[in-house]
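Lecture 7, part B: from sequences to assemblies.

Below are the input chains for today's worked example.
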Amino acid sequence: DSGVTQTPKHLITATGQRVTLRCSPRSGDLSVYWYQQSLDQGLQFLIQYYNGEERAKGNILERFSAQQFPDLHSELNLSSLELGDSALYFCASSETARSGNTIYFGEGSWLTVV
Amino acid sequence: DAKTTQPTSMDCAEGRAANLPCNHSTISGNEYVYWYRQIHSQGPQYIIHGLKNNETNEMASLIITEDRKSSTLILPHATLRDTAVYYCIVRAYYGGSQGNLIFGKGTKLSVKP
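Predicted structure of the full complex, as structure tokens:
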């Protein structure tokens, strides 16, 4: 158990809909990361937050957005969903944003768009 | 893009040491080498990381060459539960986008009885 908690574990929704994925980082961790893993793309970095502020942005679509709240939990919002958005979404956290701090991953949220 | 090169797949006999190589010939002086593994579709699991010196923990050993252009992850006594995809990742020392983990395709390790 990494200590990173993600909900829901599984989600099935229709095209055009909007969903929110939630992440609770490990206790004391200030930095949160979101990754997407699909069959054809592998693990892709989406976005990073540190202590409530966006720190880095990767291959995140404009239809997707994220935020980190004062209690440090984070949410990834996916809108206007397409079939290709079906994937496993991972949240990860680390104590700080420094590269010497290990990043720990949650077990992921399976999103299926039908 | 990932800065590492790993074999696509490897086999190892149960109980033997598994040695997973990684080439990172363009590594900079301030970049760490990290190893993660992913068992089936579970979340990536941290194994070990190092900067210059060899490292050992309860899971594995990391051997980094003196020129830092390559490294080897060693699982001393592989078990069937070690079957997974192993990712070698070069991560910049400072934060920001370079401090994130950029995953490549990794090595699929199959431990066989």
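Note for the exam: Residues 10 and 109 of chain B are 5 Å apart (CA to CA). Keep this in mind when comparing with the next example.
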